[in-house]
Amino acid sequence: xxxxxxxxxxxxxxxxxxxxxxxxxxxxxxxxxxxxxxxxxxxxxxxxxxxxxxxxxxxxxxxxxxxxxxxxxxxxxxxxxxxxxxxxxxxxxxxxxxxxxxxxxxxxxxxxxxxxxxxxxxxxxxxxxxxxxxxxxxxxxxxxxxxxxxxxxxxxxxxxxxxxxxxxxxxxxxxxxxxxxxxxxxxxxxxxxxxxxxxxxxxxxxxxxxxxxxxxxxxxxxxxxxxxxxxxxxxxxxxxxxxxxxxxxxxxxxxxxxxxxxxxxxxxxxxxxxxxxxxxxxxxxxxxxxxxxxxxxxxxxxxxxxxxxxxxxxxxxxxxxxxxxxxxxxxxxxxxxx
Length: 338
Fold this sequence. Notes:
Blueprint: H1 3-12, H2 14-19, H3 24-36, E1 43-44, H4 45-57, H5 63-69, H6 77-90, E2 94-98, E3 104-108, H7 110-121, H8 131-147, H9 152-174, H10 184-223, H11 230-246, H12 248-261, H13 263-283, H14 289-337
Antiparallel strand pairs: 1-3, 2-3
């Protein structure tokens, strides 16, 4: 990355601006405790206000905090809490959205997710697994080579080599040899990697949603232009929404979602999780069992939120098209009756 881009990021990056906030020393721990610590991705306004009231009772705000959030010195704590939330939405630490009943909910922004992920990465680890990470890199390298090779003869040779290795292992087991298994250190390394990747994936959904929102916004801007007629709008709307699903972001997300909700994917994940948890308990290997037990449901919840947000955007596109056509028809009637 060129030096100029680093300098630009230092001044323009929202995550860096969040870290440099005057009250980041208590705001970021509060947000971590409110969302990440308890694996809660959304909080209702009343719930978050109550949590913030408890936080404010334990600390003395500075005048700078008040000025930035436009808080008056004689205001009650509940008003101060709501002003803080409004200020954090404006500063893009939080995102607010209404539910079906019109109640306001909050979630961490993609920028705050990045900041919290980075802060967590600074935590001192008991050991840094290198063998497992190298194996992951090596497997990815092999997969890239294998899945980009379109020569049938080469692919056949690779499959035959794999088949030979599998047959060798079958023979060893048939002759009574014990299967090769991971040592406790190797298990611990891979669990550490799995846990970190799981939390990062859950945090990345905010950025995935933001990326989709930017694409949708571009689509909406195209279809609100006054010089575009109905036929063009309809054609562009369907083409644009299809383009959204076919974009790199769309292909990746919907492939993930299709597998996650498939019967095969859910059954395989459940069976693998149960087997792993049983092995960890039997061998007394410490692990983040809460994440292992809940990550699939957490991924489903996060993925569904993105999926439903996309559906709402599609409805918005349809509404814009309809409203624009109705407006066009009204103008035509007015011109005919003038």
